[in-house]
Design goal:
It is built from 12 helices and 13 strands. The protein is α/β, with parallel strands linked by helices and 330 residues long. The chain folds into 2 domains: 171 residues, Peroxisomal Thiolase, Chain A, domain 1; 152 residues, 3-Layer(aba) Sandwich (Peroxisomal Thiolase, Chain A, domain 1). The strands form 4 sheets. A 5-stranded mixed beta sheet has the order 1-7-6-4-5, with helices on both faces. Helix 3 packs across helix 4 and helix 8 packs across helix 9. The chain is globular and about 55 Å long. Bound molecules: acetyl coenzyme *A. Acetyl coenzyme *A binds next to helix 2, helix 6, helix 8, helix 9 and strand 12.
Amino acid sequence: MRKAYIDAIGMYVPPKIVTNQDLEKIMDTSDQWIRERSGIQERHHVDGECTTDLALKATEEVLEKAGMVAEDIDHIIFSTMASDYFVPGGGPMMTRRLGIPGTPAVDIRMACSGFLYGLSIAKAFIESGAHDNILLITSEVQSVALDFSTEGRDTAVLFGDGAAATVLKATDTDRGLLSVVTHSDGRYAEDLMMRTPSTLDNPLLTHALLDQGHGRVKMNGRSVFKHAITKFPQVIKEALEKAGVEKDQIKLVVPHQANLRITEAVAKRLDLKLHEVVYSNIHKYGNTTSASIPIALYEAMAEGKLHRGDYLVVASFGAGFTWGASVIKW
Ligand code: ACO
């Protein structure tokens, strides 16, 4: 049966590194608080670059790795929480930046679950025979929407900017995406949100709204934590069952890099060895939303943690709430 598989991944983070010590200088926080609560030591922030700038760099790398040119891309799936413009989205912008006008592109804004939703769309496109070569871009510029005053410290310290680009291709072998499961629940929309610009307001953007902080990311950290540590294990079990793979067969779990404490709690609930089976690189990048899983996957591959035939699980939880998991035979 025709399946989708991940052929190559490219990644890019902007060069500017912001350490916990840098944040100590601009808000009432401490390196110790941030490390203990999240595992984060530093993150990258843009310094003038926009979302498609990061996306382009990651795409250039993945095309080279996949032995492709831009014209070989059949469809772009573009995941971000912040595209260059409010409208149009990043997908069409990438056809311009890659010089491939006319290439179909779809934008998704599924927050931290963007990679999982992107995999589900790519899987459907490829398995149905509609397309052969999919470029899944996950590019996030979040530092421009964070509140770096002490009031915003519970959220601002967690996020970083970064991008990944993943090429998915078709195969008739037994490798590839065995299952992709996705969920969403809008009852908790306000627990992690950025309200403005919003059609709740007319006009949708005013100085007053910005002055009230509505143009900044707001989070109910405890609610996110509580739901994340429940949904991650549930959806991983669901994806394993759908794929017909046993937990003991898993070689590597690459969860969305939300927070090391969430990852630790999930590993414990699934009885998985944190450092052997569950991958984390959050200390270097913070939470890069939809880019975090492919960036982690990129680094796990570079560290030799994945070999052809291994069973890999990727899983996410984030704003919406949205969550998902996929079992992949590498
Ligand atoms: N530096 C120093 N102190 C801080 C900071 C900070 N950056 N942020 C909050 N505090 C203070 C609070 O004001 C509070 O002070 P108080 O006791 O005087 O009122 C104290 O630290 C403890 O605050 P809590 O909210 O109890 O801290 P908690 O242990 O719950 O940790 C955290 C907060 C880290 C946000 C936690 O709730 C969490 O991990 N939530 C999950 C959030 C997450 O991962 N989001 C990522 C996006 S969603 C996703 O990707 C899944």
